Amino acid sequence: MSVQVIFLGTAGSIPTIARSLPAVAIRRKGELTLFDCGEGVQRQMVRAHLGFNKKMKVLVTHMHGDHVLGLPGLIQTMSLLGRTKKLEVYGPSGLKEFVDAIEQTVHFSLTFPLELVEVEDEGLVCEEKEYQIHSAWAKHSIPAFAYSFVEKPRPGRFHPQKARELGIPEGTLWGQLQRGVAVKLKDGRVVNPEEVVESPRKGRSVVYTGDSRYSNSIVKLAKYTDLLIHDCTFDDSLRERAEKDGHSTPSTAVKTALRAKAKRLVLTHISARYKEPMLLLEQAKETFPEVIVAEDFMRIDLPRVDNVIK
Amino acid sequence: MSVQVIFLGTAGSIPTIARSLPAVAIRRKGELTLFDCGEGVQRQMVRAHLGFNKKMKVLVTHMHGDHVLGLPGLIQTMSLLGRTKKLEVYGPSGLKEFVDAIEQTVHFSLTFPLELVEVEDEGLVCEEKEYQIHSAWAKHSIPAFAYSFVEKPRPGRFHPQKARELGIPEGTLWGQLQRGVAVKLKDGRVVNPEEVVESPRKGRSVVYTGDSRYSNSIVKLAKYTDLLIHDCTFDDSLRERAEKDGHSTPSTAVKTALRAKAKRLVLTHISARYKEPMLLLEQAKETFPEVIVAEDFMRIDLPRVDNVIK
What we know:
The structure is a homodimer.
Chain A: E1 3-9, E2 23-28, E3 31-35, H1 41-47, E4 56-59, H2 65-68, H3 71-80, E5 87-91, H4 95-105, E6 114-118, E7 123-127, E8 131-137, E9 145-151, H5 160-165, H6 172-178, E10 183-184, E11 190-191, E12 205-208, H7 216-221, E13 227-231, H8 239-245, H9 250-260, E14 264-268, H10 278-285, E15 291-293, E16 299-302
Parallel strand pairs in A: 3-4, 4-5, 5-6, 12-13, 13-14, 14-15
Antiparallel strand pairs in A: 1-2, 1-16, 2-3, 7-8, 8-9, 9-12, 10-11
Helix pairs in contact in A: 9-10
C-alpha cells in the first residue's frame, strides 16, 4: 500500500506554460490530502485523474492568492458533480472569511458539508486512525504554515511460529498480542506482546513547507521525514531577494534537509524566470544528492518501510 | 489590421483535459478585450502569449464562479508583474462586492488602477474612439449579459484621381474630405465628400452570449454580426435540460444565428460530457453551414471588410 505524492502545481506566484500554481496531493488508501490550492487545481486534478468524490482534506499554507484561489472553483465543481462527502479545509486565520465572501458573492450551492478549520498555532492539526497532520510556523511575509503528513507506526511483525511454540491458540489471543496487549493463557501463564511481536514499524511522512525562508520550526517538523517538499523560488545568486520576500533558494532547502536528516528533498515553487531548473538542481545536489526539482504531474511513491522503531 | 478572436477557455461549468473554463479574448491593435474570466485564464493567456501589460477590458457575463473566478488571479499576476495601465472590468451587479471581498481576504496590493463598472441594463457599455461594446440581457438562471464588440464604421475609400480632376489640391483639403467634411475651393466651388469618397465601410463585430437559453435580446444584439459565439452546453437531445438550466443546444444557437443573419457561428461552453464535439457540429451544420465548435487556443481572424454601408 503506497503513499503517492502527486505534484499538481509547481510554479512560483505566476503560472507558466509548464507549471500550474502551487498544489501537492498525497494519495493514500483512496483518500486525498491536498497541500495548497492554487488557481487551476481542479483542472490539474482532472488531468491527473484524481476524481472529486474521495475523502479529502485541503491544507492551505497561507492566504496569498496563488496558494488559495483554486479553492472556490474546486468547491463549485464538487457541488456540480453532486459530492456528498464532507470536505475538510484547514488554513490560517482568514480562511473562513475568504470562503464566506466567495459564497456570498459568487453563486453556488454546496451539496456537501464544508468544514473550515482555522489553524492557530504549531502542533497537531488533525488526527485520523492511521495518520496525523501537523503544522509548524513557516517564515514568510504573512502568517504561513508548513504541514506534515505522518503515518502512525504500524504494529510490528507477528511471529506465528513463536506463538505456537508458546502454546497460544490461534484466534482472538493472537489478535490481542498483535495489537500490543498482553494475554493470559488458560494455564495462567501471561505472554507479553514483545515475546511474539517485533517492535512497531515506522510510518511514512511527507513535509510541505509552503512559502518560507529558513525556519527552525520547519526543521523540527521535518525531522527524519521521508520526503521534504521545500520552497525554492530563487537560485542561490538571489539569496538576498529570497530572504527579503520570505522565500528559499537551493542552499536554504538543503540546509533544512540536512538539519532535519530528511531522506529525500524536492524543490518546488519555482519562479517563472527558470525555464530550465538545472541551475537549481546543481546548486542543491552538491551537498544533498537525494534532491530533485518538482515538475507538474510528477509522482513519487513512498513504499512501506519495514524499519522497526528502535 | 485584423481583429483576432482567441478562445482561451471553451468548457462548460467544469474544466476538462482539453478545455479550460470560459474566456474569449479579442485582440485588436495591441489591445485586449476579454469576454468572461474563468478560473485558469491567466495561465491560458501565458500559453497564448497574450501578455499582461496591454490596454485591456474584461467583460464578465454573470457572477457564476466558472465565469469570474479567474479574475482575482489575473489581477494578482498583473500586480506581481508591475502593471501600471488601468484595467477596466465590467460585469453585472455583484462584481464590485466580489472583487472587494477578494481584496480584503486574499492579500495582494494593486500596482495599477482597477476600474470596476457594474452594467445595469442593455445598451452601450463603453465607447472607444474606434469601437463600442454593447450589452443585451441573456436568459440564464441568474442575471446575465451577452456582449458585442463593434468597430465603428471606417471612412469610405477616397479617390485621389477624382479629387485631382476636380482641381482639389493635395493636402489638408483631402484630409477633410476623407473625414466626411465638405470643402470650399479657392475659386468658390464647394465639393462634397460624396464626390470623392465612397460610403463608410462597415466595422467588424463579434458577439458573445455567455450562458443563455434563446433570447430575442441577443438576436437584436447580434444583428448582422461577423461572428456569433454562442452557448452550446448540450446537444439537441437534452433540449429540456438546457432550457431548464438556462443554456443552449445547437438548434438554439442556429436559430439565433439565422434570425440575426450572423455570418459565422462558433459553439462554445461545451459540457464535459462531449469528449468529441462532432455531434454538436452535425446538429448545427444541417441548417447553418458556417458553424464550428470552439477549441481552446483556436484563433479566428476577422479581416477588414470593404463593404460599404448602404
